[in-house]
Amino acid sequence: MRKMLPGFGVVGTPNSVRAYVPLLKSYGFRVVALWGRTKEDAAKVAAELNIPFHSSNVDEVLLNKDVDIIAVTCAPHMQAPIAVKALGIGKHVICGAPAGPNQVDSLRMVNAAKYYPRLMSLTIYGLRFLPAIDKMKQLILDGYVGDINVCEVKVHFEKAKRDQFDWMCDGTMGGGLLNEIGSDIIDVIGYLTGQRATKAHGMLKTFTKQTEKIKGIREITSDDFCTFQIELDQGSCVTATINGHIPGPFQQEIMILGNKGRLIAKGADLYGQKNDQSKESLLHFDPINFKEEERHGVSEKTRTLIPTPYLKGIIQFIEAVKEAFDKEEERQSYCIDPLLRYSDPQITMRNKLYLACALVLVFCATLALCCDEGVCVSIVSKCLLIKSCDCDMTSLKNCTCCKDCQLCLSKLYTECCSCVGLCPKPDPDDDLQDGSTIEDLHDPIPELFNVLTEQPDIEKRWTTFSHPVHFDALLYKPNHGILDLSKDIRQEATKDNYGSELNCTVAFMSQCYSLRKCKESCKSMGAARYRWFHDQGCCQCIGNNCISYGLNSPKCLQCPPQDEETENQLQEEVNKLVENSVVEEEEEEIDEEFDDEDDDLEEDIGINELKTVG
Predict the structure, then answer these.
(1) Mean of the pLDDT values across residues 431-456?
(2) Spatial CB neighbours of 404, under 8 Å, sequence gap ≥ 6
(3) Which of 280, 286, 300, 383 could hold 408 in an S-S bridge, CB 3.0 to 4.6 Å?
């Protein structure tokens, strides 16, 4: 009798799920439950993929008796709490890429995986399962390239434009090419070379900040161009460029150059050239087998969502997972041997921690907004190893290790607390002049504010801006870590509570106001709160539907003058005033000279008259 494979519970409804679920089903896995951010999303995807159970409560999926494996495909900032909770209740976990927003979350997942060693805990980095990469690894071990000197990676494609704003548009929530593709690149370089990153330098750029459907005051912050250089622990160097602005088919080249030759993985094919050869030779050819992919449920839309090398690797990954469970008789047991072929013996979440650290190293080198690596690397490593800073710092009130962590950091607490997530990261651009004063107003009148801001003001006394409230952006707090899944926070922020529109509306006064006048003006409009910018004197009145304190940058029309023409006009007026004052002073001096001459003339006439009389 054939063994029944374990059942999958899928957490998340991204587009990639439409590729993963048919692949799992084609290999005999049962997909029995699905979690979505909202009931509508979960129901729609579940009906499309024929999944019997769906919910917007993650606990209902985790505790489902038919679910043995949790596939975490949601946004990166939500991965850690879900994976840790799943492992804690005895579920296997397969976590999707990217690696997450920070290394602290990855460390929690690593510790949970180490605590439950009998449970499968893997990350889907499918590129290392690609047959061409597997062949490449074997040739490197056989000495084809000799000692590795340089690893060069080029990825060219046209990044698809998003239909709506989500976590993939936000760099702080894990979006961007560095996380989406760069994490796979760093993983496969470590797999091929057997080396780890020690130094990194990078540059991230966002060239497309708005699209036809994402525009207005909201901007895309995730990078669409990425380049980085990494120095490995045995002296090898890595240079990678990921360009999402080149139309045409997806192109990827991974070259490993040594003192005896080179190997190049072009897409799913492998080429090689020894130093004594005049041209490259084809070592492994892996064409697209459309019939085989259709058997696995791969559609044309799936091929547009997932590039061919990554899709082939994911297929091999799922096949290895199936083989791991087939080798054991019990449904929930698995054998690690089929997976060891593609990894070191310490596979699972530990590699995820290394990737998170490497990505953070590149990201910090790019933005220079992280803790001082030279000062903090030693003390932070020590505190993490002795587990003084190894706890959930989401709620600082209930933080079990905060006291031990600050004692471990000792005199370097101020410089290094941001490295472990205990305090916010330092901002080099922070300045008191760039700050603002905010205050909640008593007895707001939402109806009055809505009437005043519904249409543009004819007299241009204020300018109105509106944008929809985004749940993920509200619930995710980068300075405090991850979501609290102990209660369903989303039930507190629903359309029933905040209205059908769910729009945050703010009004910027056109003229510069004093703090007192700003408060009085916003109160007269019925606003719920106000924000007064110190440097500009710009006043922002904020509506009742806004969760935060409006926009972070001033947008007053005439405060201060923004265009060069206005500044030139003001400068001309000042120059005229100066010229007029100079002319008036000269005229006064001339008048005084004439008065003196008249006085002298009168004195001379008087003297002559006296002489005549005498």
Answers:
(1) 84
(2) 388, 389
(3) 383
**Looking at the DSSP assignment, which residues form a beta bridge with residue 70?**
9, 93
Model confidence, pTM: 0.60
Confidence of residue 242 (pLDDT cuts 50, 70, 90): very high
Question: What DSSP designation does 216 have?
Answer: T
Q: Indicate if the alpha-carbon torsion angle 31, 37, 39, 44 is positive or negative.
A: negative
pLDDT, tens digit (0-9, with 9 covering 90-100), for 361-398: 454 444 334 556 556 766 776 777 677 887 766 666 77
Which tokens hold the place of 530?
């106000």
Instruction: For residue 68, give Cα distances in angstroms to 34, 92, 322.
Output: 13, 6, 13
pLDDT given at position 584: 56
229: three-class secondary structure by DSSP: strand
By DSSP bridging, strand 148-156 and strand 121-123 are unpaired
Output the six-digit token pair for 190. Answer: 């470590």
Query: What b-and-e string marks burial along 334-354, b requiring 16 or more CB atoms within 10 Å of the CB?
Result: beeebbeebbeeebbbbbbbb
Distance, CA of 160 to CA of 378 (rounded, Å): 41
DSSP one-letter code for 202 = E
Question: Any idea which of 145-149, 285-289, 600-604 has the lowest mean pLDDT?
Answer: 600-604
Give residue for tokens 């408060």: 519
Q: 129-288 maps to which CATH number?
A: 3.30.360.10
Between CA 137 and CA 78 the distance in angstroms is 33
266 versus 196: the higher-pLDDT residue is 266
Identify the CATH class of 7-127+310-350. alpha beta
Dihedral sign for Cα atoms in the order 515, 520, 524, 529: positive
